[in-house]
Amino acid sequence: MFKFLTQAQNKQAMPIPTKQDLWCVPLGGVGEIGQNMMIYGHAGQYLMVDCGMGFEPVKGSSTQFERVVADPSSLTPNLSRLQGIVITHGHEDHIGGLLTLWPKLQVPIYASPFAMAQIQRKFAESEQELNPTLITITPEQDWDVGVFRLRWLPVTHSIPQSHSLLVSTELGDILHTADWKIDPQPLVDKAFSMTSFSSLNRLLAVVGDSTNALKPGKTPSESACYADLLACVAQQPYRVVVSCFSSNVARLITLARVAKASGRYFAFAGRALERMVSIAKQLNYWPDNLTPISLHEIGYLPRNEVMLITTGSQGEPRSGLWRLARGQHRVCELEPNDTVIFSAIKIPDNLARIDQLISALQRYHIKVIHAEDQANKHLHVSGHPSQQDLIALYQQLKPPLLIPVHGEPAHLQAHADLVLEKGLAQQVLLGENGDLFRIKPFVKHEPQRLKTGHLYIDDKF
Asked: For site-directed labelling of 128, which of 78, 289, 297, 443 has its Cα 20 to 30 A away?
């Protein structure tokens, strides 16, 4: 059961847009990583895009975190104007706030089949008796949600069925990119294509992903991981444990193929992983020739024939990897000279926890290999656009206005600097959570600012 901790409420109401107004207000995900939530306003109505979760450190601790969601209470005085919650993809920083906030919002939720399967399980497994209206969309078809006409445009990312969102109004269109990358070989779903973006001739603005705006070059393809992971695993003489993001179905398939090619059986440890693989099978993403064994079989096999795929790449205290590090796993046990591979980045907010986990493993003489420490090897690749990817998309779109989102201030600034330096947009608006970005009529000045905050969920992580 979710319980909100004490939090100062937002007392400033979201403004009511006229028919001549088109604006957006980020309540989460701008100036920070996670808890993405954007409100679009037009003709007396609101639209919420994504409803994510994030983490904040417990006061006085560098390793204990609390789950947080963006505070949408600025909508409360005019909640009847909110037409729906539309989801771009199934990552927790985009859907992790739904279970907490939907009882307050009580509006339909729109999502693709993969994200909807995750959402349905969240509500089904909840202790709360909730019955939301869930609408599964078809990509690249128009969907009317109040005064907004929406189209989900397929993109490649690190979870199946990721989409940019075209928000159309009588005043013009906005492209909300959400999370994306240009991947010609994503392993699941189709390769990235510019075709969907080639005919956006009413475009007023791009609200764009800034996560990798500091990184030069192109983001490598997901397919680049297989060869380097196989080479790494093949060199390990004993048991191998690989930790990665549970939502990255393509990476899970790659690891299963690596296990098979290296003569190892593989098993999954962690409810999030098991849930994601179950959904992948349900929606025909999981190959029939890759069959995991039961966790209970692991202990009966020679150490050199085992690969365990587990949660915990960000040092989450309740994860399978931490239980292994403490010798508290209900089924499995690590031994000296086993190898743990982190097939993930180190998210900055999690550095202390990750380092603590690595130290715990090394104390038991476990060999640790982290993707970020392996120069020129693809033990992990990002799901977000680097600078050359951003340039390629904006050369196609030629947006009149860019609003950088999804990132800390340094990422937003780098995104803005790149676009202005290359002449890829006519105008850029920088801001933070609570800023009102006026797209029509366009006003280039310090945006109107609403008070924003976070709601803390009584569930320490």
From this structure: 78
